[in-house]
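Subject: Protein record for review, amino acid sequence with backbone structure tokens
Concerning: The relation between a protein's sequence and the shape of its backbone.
How to read it: Take the token row as a discrete description of the fold.
Enclosed: The protein record, placed directly beneath this head.
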Amino acid sequence: MIPHKLKLHNFMCYREEQSLDFSGIHLACLTGDNGHGKSALLDAMTWALWGRARARRDDELIALGESEMWVDLEFGLGPQRYRVWRQRSKRGRGQTDLHLYIWNEGSEDWQLLDEGGINERQALIIRTLRMEYDTFANSAFLLQGRADSFTVKTASERKQILADILGLNRYDLYEEQAKEEIRARKERAIRVQGEIGGIDHALARRGEFEAQLAGARHAVTQAVEALRAAEAEQATLRLEVQGLRGQAHQLADLRNRMARAERDLAEMRDQYNAAQRRLTAYEQVLAEQEAIETGWRALQDAREQEAAYNTKLRRDVELQAQLLKLDQAIQRARDGLQMEQAALCVPLTGTLAGELNHDDVTVALLRFRVTNSGAWPSAAASGSKRPPSASSRRRSWPRHRPSWHRWRNSRRAAMPSPQTSARSASVWQRSNPTQKGCATRDRPSKRKVN
């Protein structure tokens, strides 16, 4: 084992992280005053590899005032490079962590070799070094103050240390392997002797075995003949089975056809019964043909009457709308007259009263027309139900009501001039001293219009 690099932190007197590179060094000498950490570097190496140093407990190796420490050692063993990292912490009941790495030339990185827990990893390191801590401390490494540790040991302990150093334990392994081989060969010889004895015993019964062989051959011949007969019979039975299966399929097909035929027959019977019921119903309908035709004619008459009533109803609605328009026009005319009379401040004349009475007569005639389903008085008197046409209504309209222009012109002609109106108003007021203002509300009595 050749150390290459050493890193440590909070290990004994080394509080800050320290790093030592041993590359290219074949012989080294550590010098310095007592307590400067010369032996601490060697203890760091042994503690990293085996977890043991001069201290009795691992927590004593941690620097004062600190709670954890770690050591990282890189070394070479033969053609391989290894790295061991061990850590110790005071937290809780104390915790230790250990990892072993090997350098991978392909990826140029460290590859972890951990197996199991701490004890399994420590055993892997010992197998890799092929050396325990005691062997190392009594051969290549002398502890400070313990240079005579080898001489004070017992003869068996010194023998064991020298055997570990010189590798004599492999001869013990060879001896154990030789004993195992001898034991295996003896067991094999015993088995061979037993097999030879069985062969000799069988040779002594050779005649018996030959007779049994002849009987067995005869039995085999008979068995072969029986097998051939059985195969022939089996082939015949297979043909019969195939025929029976074909017949079974045909029988099943016939049964299915019969079932379908029965279902079709039942459906046809149902259809026949339904047809019989429909025929009976048709016969009953034919028996009532006269009553149905009579009802049909009555229905046609009712529909014609309903159409006539609907026509009259639509005409009535139209006449009601015309009547409403006429009432509105009359009301507007009255309002206009009242406003003009108020402006002129003259009483109503007999001609104006007659015109208003003439309007009332016109409204009465229109109401008579609506009441008698749209017939004009002349048509109703003659007994004709057909209303007059639009042209006849325009020709007969002046007989029922003068046009608005004629009425307005006659009113203007009947009205006096402003001077005459003023003199008439003053004379009327002198003759009626109790009345003041315009007599706009005094109207002459309605005269009867023939």
User: Anything to note?
Assistant: Residues 346-356, 373-388, 390-402, 418-450 have pLDDT under 50 and may be disordered.
